[in-house]
Predict the structure.
Amino acid sequence: MKPLKFKIFLSIFTLSFITNAQNVTYNHILDSTNLEIKKVMKLFEDYLESNRQNREKNSFWNLQEQKEHIKYDFLESEFQPSLYMGFPVHVLSIKSKNGVYQIKAQFGLCQENGEPYVLAIANYFVKKENGSYKLYNALTFNKKEWLSTKVGFVDFYYPKYHEFNYEKAEKLNNFIKDICNDFDVKPKPIEYYLADDFDEIQALKGFDCYIGMGGETKPSGKASDDKVFCGGLGEYYPHEVFHVEIDDHYPNKHYWVSEGMATFLGGSRGKDLHWHLKRTYDYLQKHPEINLNNLLDLVNLDEYTSYHYSLGGLIAKRIYERGGWAMIKEFMNSGKSDNDYYSAIEKYLGIKRSNLNQYLRNQLKAEALK
Ligand SMILES: [Zn+2]
């Protein structure tokens, strides 16, 4: 899963509200005259106005998390371009317990017709570090409430109701060993958060609500940095694990290469590549007008599959069948632009862009009927 993209949503609004200074307002805040609460409010305002993009040390965020993670604010990359893309911030509440404060803030706006539009409601923690208040990720505090078990390269975190499955945990470790071996990289230790429902994970990370929430509960996952978050599949969600273990080692690749490889090796949303290919085949049979010569213009097929999973996976599979891991490794380093991707298909599969529609429909048929 990629960060939710809001370029489309944003274009609905006039972009005039996007300014560098993040507008902060407050709901009724209890104890707002309290000196300590005032300090916490000021800290949050200062942080929102600070320049996080330069990745330099941020004096409003705790040093410990900054030391451990380049992207120390885990919620920032949940949206594209960023959680801090310019939505006004409305602080809903500030709660305190034993010197630890919890800020609940809404990122949203009021549209011209008066309707509110809420991007997310996010939680932050504030605690003193070396005598002064600093912000912390909600995850750092919330994960203490969960159980954890370490198996091999993976620190698993899960809710108390979950019965830990060692067999699946071993299977995930074997997957890590295999792919790291195939791609000549050293396996790295990762944190793996699992729950029955992805929204439990979102709450753990600090989101009470986020745009895109809702719909039928189905397996869902997300990878970032050295963490995998997934709902609905227990200890074995290999797709996202591919992203955390391999992606950073091959930065010069198109998004479809990454998603295609992750789906080829690890399926997507709990279904293997074959399932996605069958679904895509059935759909495209009914839609002869869709031109796969422009496949990179296609996005979601439906809420269960996307073209970059199914067709991206099919292309990865064919390249593997043709040239094994050696060719796959070249493919993983074939450039980031759309043109690079089309060129890579021509280079490794011998298919020109103008023949892609015919080729992919034929290959889909062959796979779907297997
Ligand atoms: Zn993915």
